[in-house]
């Protein structure tokens, strides 16, 4: 069979490209290389600011010209690096040569030897990864998660008083409201989002085995750990002074565990909304021109939630692998993290795709309150909990001689459907006070929701 024209192997770079494209600015190979150039340039500027080895601080204009190296990083630089790496067989060395080449074109040969000065590749990599992952999370992924959370809070507020039959273990249970149930998901996600927002992004800048040995050999009078700390913190990152050749990646493990946790909650949301749709609680709003089934014209399939579910499972698997792999490095350095970290974008890509589908899906459903009420009206036996609880209170108050109220209600309702007339007749025959009896007779499944509506915070 003849070969196809060059095609993307990953669906993230093909079918789903539009939904995940913003992540590529940070978590692609080009995004990583741009950040590496940024680190090299800023380190070069830092060294000259300290007037090391007879250099003088650069003028603001010269700094701006140097920063153009990463601010205008584009296809020419991407192609240049690809050609150079084919020769060097080393990605970070290719970046160093690119910076040197651009320094020559800017007439800055005098400081070229300070490019990558006293650095190991992992000084550049740990800083570049911290920058790209932080920016991807804060600029792209977290805002999309917050959009989903906001959509949930909006729906929770809208449906705060929409009484609904609960289903614990899949069986009819004490009623709740749809708003309260959606608020549960919003609250869970908001808590995890706060943890992600406050995540640390660590980098090291201490040389081949984390000892600043080469730095001190070049100039033993300089406080290199302080210069390194100020450099890393100046980039908006957290400095890790105690490392091997690599920064230990524990911040990444923590972040990916949190992202996986958020994905687990979102997966729970997707399957629950899917179930509510299958029960008829939510109607799906038809999208003009869309096809639900290739053979059944009436169908509107809950594809947004199914797509989200699948992508969250893929993302969760990748986040788990990232966390479990990156936590370990043999002795002072091995290379397992290199390939592993190149899949960070894949994990966040599938997660972002899921968020996009959930956001769309939540905007394409409409609550069927009539279905919720009909379901409640068909399950009066859920009031058994209220009745036996009231009887217990009456016994305690000395207004009833009933000996086992739970067993009494169990005999009446377990495995049986009990309608409003049968339940009313049962209540009238109970040995309890008149006020309690009237309170129970006035109760309906739709009214037995406690303070569910009040648990939903005010509209945001």
Automatic annotation (TrEMBL):
Residues of the Adenylosuccinate lyase PurB C-terminal domain: 329-449
Cleavable signal peptide: none
Name of the protein this chain belongs to: Adenylosuccinate lyase
The protein's role, per its UniProt record: Catalyzes two reactions in de novo purine nucleotide biosynthesis. Catalyzes the breakdown of 5-aminoimidazole- (N-succinylocarboxamide) ribotide (SAICAR or 2-[5-amino-1-(5-phospho-beta-D-ribosyl)imidazole-4-carboxamido]succinate) to 5-aminoimidazole-4-carboxamide ribotide (AICAR or 5-amino-1-(5-phospho-beta-D-ribosyl)imidazole-4-carboxamide) and fumarate, and of adenylosuccinate (ADS or N(6)-(1,2-dicarboxyethyl)-AMP) to adenosine monophosphate (AMP) and fumarate.
GO molecular function: lyase activity
One Pfam family it belongs to: ASL_C
EC number(s) on file: 4.3.2.2
Segments traversing the membrane: none
Source organism (scientific name): Microbacterium invictum
